[in-house]
Amino acid sequence: MKAILIKDGTGPADNLYLGEEATPEPGKGQVQVKAFGINRMDLLQREGKYPLPPQASRTILGVEFSGVVTKLGEGAKQWKEGDEVFGLAYGGAYAEYIVSPEIMLLPKPKEFSWVEAAGVPEVWMTATQALMLEAPLKKGQNVLIHAGASGVGIAAIQIALHVLGANKVFTTCGSDEKVEFLNKLGNAPDRLHVFNYKTQDFEQELKKHADGVDLIIDFIGKQYWNQNIGSLRLDGTLLYLAFMSGAAFPEKASIAPILGKRLTIKGSTLRSRKEDYQRNLLSTFEEKVLPGILEGKLHVKIHQVYPWTEVIAAHKDMEGNKNSGKLVLEIPE
């Protein structure tokens, strides 16, 4: 089969190329991939900076896809050949075919294009995981979501506003254009407040609207530590999903407010989770979030679609933080 591979195993975006690898034989089910999404972890894996779970492909990137079931392995009974599906993967989605555990697939709704379906799994599952499983947001609480224009941020903002009933949602992004985009997306001017972190101090700004937040979803790490701690209310939670500005604590970090405000500091990942956890997450998404998407209350935002031959350009666009929403690659018929 054809697959996107990395020259020399790791390296910059220019090392990506369309090559060939053995077509995987199904343990349970084989899916012919129609489209796949790009995530920041793909960039880290390409550079050799992402610790892979044991189930992941060592040569092929990609953790989300949409496609058609083409072959069933021994004992497979949940799907049949020809079923249209989308789902999560431990790796290997940048390819014509992928082998997937049955329980990590969902039926593709007829309302979804292949591109939309491929842009859902990782970001919407991560947002669901954060807000419903790992640090459940209660109705009427306030939440701060960093990297608001990222795929996960876009999903989390909408889930907080329109599924979980947050009182106020605060979010950060890096340009005035993204501020405008997120304000239109949220469609809740009295409850959503968007800050440009390059020109505004988000801690000071959010305190013009509330005395603090109950939950912070953070991908940034070191750069935001002090402002995050200062923004949290009593008994608040800071949930880390990444640390793009570094994992070390800043020099002036203090444990005192953690004790004084009885804060919870927590970290979470998705890719390393066992199949049963991911199945539970998929079920939670299917029951509580997916209906809102299908009804048009929540919106899957695709920033740009590329043919998979333009994977280098797609990776460079993500590296440059050019996207507001998902970057998805299509595999031609």
Automatic annotation (TrEMBL):
One of its GO terms (molecular function) is oxidoreductase activity, acting on NAD(P)H. InterPro entries: ADH-like_C (IPR013149), ADH-like_N (IPR013154), ER (IPR020843), GroES-like_sf (IPR011032), NAD(P)-bd_dom_sf (IPR036291), Quinone_OxRdtase_PIG3 (IPR014189). Keywords: NADP, Oxidoreductase. Residues 11-329 form the Enoyl reductase (ER) domain. Pfam families: ADH_N (PF08240), ADH_zinc_N (PF00107). This is Quinone oxidoreductase.
